[in-house]
Design a protein that fits this description.
- This protein is of the alpha+beta class.
- It contains 9 helices and 8 strands.
- Bound molecules: zinc ion (2 copies).
- One zinc ion binds next to helix 9.
- The site of one zinc ion has 6 residues, from helix 9.
- One of its GO terms (biological process) is single strand break repair.
Length: about 270
């Protein structure tokens, strides 16, 4: 079995046949698996399962491009199902972030940039590759860090860079359906050549836009961006804890004062 078509094989397999190291969760319509080569601290793939009564066939589910050639409302149903199940996976990741690392991280950036690239500035990114290497449609769900030992090449990094354009945010793809039909047609073309040229662009940090000389430099820089966020979050927690302690102290002072006053009144009467 070729590695390229492993997702297609998965999509036709009953969930009970998966080892727990592969399958994270499933619903009637989707399977969520661990990405075998995670490019972030948390990285999952959500695949649509073939529905026996649906007009959308396994062949249609080959990629986003093939799906978008189908009847628009049927295509939308498939993407909506992925989006719905992605919400649950996102919640699980966010709670794991807090449980394991004590905070939820996200892209650092100015408020204006956050408004323009609203999908980028979330702790979890969900999206499709414009020109995927694996067969069978899959939605990437990953934490916003790209800190992983499996991230080894420029094309890996650029394919997930949240502002470069090769990574198509789910929110944007859903937006195509709401836009003018001509815009939908334009975007649905998904011209591989055009998108693949993006993978050759220079390396820039997705937090601060700084140019990076090579992958080792970039990886070190991304780690330091994450570390900085982690220590800020820690300091924030510490301040919160101290403030709560102070509040507790003043609260018990209040109780004491109240009791004193009460005593005074008693003595006076
Ligand atoms: Zn992919
Ligand atoms: Zn940076």
């Amino acid at each position: 079995m070729s590695n390229l078509s492993i997702l297609r094989t998965y999509a036709q397999k009953p969930p009970s046949e998966f080892p727990s190291s592969v399958l994270f969760t499933h619903t009637e319509r989707t399977l969520t698996i661990y990405d075998a080569y995670p490019k972030s601290t948390f990285h999952f793939l959500i695949l649509p399962r073939v529905q026996s009564e649906s007009e959308i066939t396994l062949k249609d589910l080959h990629s986003l491009k093939t799906l978008l050639k189908c009847d628009k409302s049927h295509a939308k149903e498939v993407i909506d199902a992925l989006a719905k199940d992605a919400e649950d996976v996102k919640k699980e990741i966010e709670s794991e972030m807090v449980k394991r690392y004590g905070f939820k991280w996200q892209v650092v950036g100015a408020i204006v940039a956050a408004l323009v690239f609203s999908s980028t500035f979330r702790p979890i990114w969900t999206g499709f590759h414009a020109s995927p290497s694996m067969h069978h449609l899959h939605l990437h769900v990953l934490s916003a860090d790209l800190c992983s030992e499996k991230l080894k090449h420029k094309k890996h990094y650029n394919s997930f860079h949240p502002k470069l354009g090769f990574f198509l945010h789910l929110e944007d793809v859903l937006g195509w359906f709401e836009a003018e039909p001509s815009y939908f047609t334009q975007m649905a073309k998904l011209d591989e050549k055009k998108y693949e040229s993006l993978l050759k662009e220079g390396l820039t940090c997705f937090h601060c836009d700084k140019e990076m000389k090579n992958i080792p430099t970039l990886k070190e820089h991304l780690q330091s961006e994450w570390d900085a966020q982690a220590s800020k979050a820690k300091a924030r927690e510490e301040r919160k804890r101290k403030a709560e302690e102070r509040k507790k102290d003043t609260d018990s002072d209040d109780v004491e004062t109240a009791t004193d006053e009460h005593q005074d009144k008693k003595q006076k009467s």
